[in-house]
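WARN retry 2 of 3 for item q-0093 after timeout on previous attempt; input resubmitted unchanged.
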Amino acid sequence: MAVQKSVSLKEVADKAGVSIATVSRVINSKTVVKGETELRVQKVIRQLGYRPNRVAQRLRTTKGASKLIGLLIPDIRNPFYVDIIRGIEQYAYARNFAVIIGNFSQDEERQKFYIETLKSESVDAFIVAPFPGMNEYVKELSEEGYAVVCIDRGLPGVDLDVVKVDNFQGAFDAVEHLIRAGHTRIGHITGNRQIPTTMERVAGYEAAYARYGLAIDRDIIVGRDSDYQSGVDLAAHLLGLPGPPTALFTSNNLLTLGALETIHSRGLKIPEQVAIVGFDDMDWAMSLNPPLTAVRQSGFEIGRIAIELLHQRIADPARPFVSIVLKTELIVRNSCGYMLRGGYEVHKDS
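OK item q-0093 returned
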């Protein structure tokens, strides 16, 4: 037997011709809504049979009690997400939130499984690193009354609180650095191109080329998944070309590690024979030989801000959605080869 789907706040808002925030205010009696508008909303609520969500009710009636947060991430093997988890857990504890982690391993069925399971376990709110296929699931969570914050990237067409970094500028800085070091043929190993983060970094790569009037060779922009093996295979493809790139820009730390494995397995010297710059400055970057030039983004800070946004959303469900974009920093070490090509004045992390 089919289960009847509950009426969402958005459906009420659309039929009443008002915003979701206005419907929320009418239901919660938080602020004054003009009389005729309130009556219209209440009429639609009765017509559609809308019932206030149990999540919102619980959040309003359990002030001071611990709240349960569902954290959904695509790949717990990625050190960047580990940093985010550290930030979330440290500041969640300070806000009296407990965190349950669901690692969905970039799999749509697992995404759905974790969302439904966490809902059945009376989770109060969600922090999500969106992945292709999640749009409708996450949109429904918001419409059902759950507080939701997106980390690392937003969801196209879905209004939610978001905290991420400036991927475009980070990629631009990395590629510009390589160009200024003398490289004009820079291979770009991207992640999954269905992810907004990936495409923002590709756009930064392209903008750096445009800034210096260089033609882009699309054959050396290659992508597959955002994992280690993709880095191994894609670097092998690029370095096996008749005219291989003199430098590589990798889109995340796992791709960087995979590319480094290929470079070392071929006996190539960094940066003398091939330079490399990665997106993500992890703890191990300093320990490599030579130390890795990388774009630094603070996963810990993303986690901290995600908890603050969640706290604010729970306190005021009708507040406007915000998107916070954090700055990145290019940390220059020895893998980019800028000193071999004459160098230029730049901050160097020793």
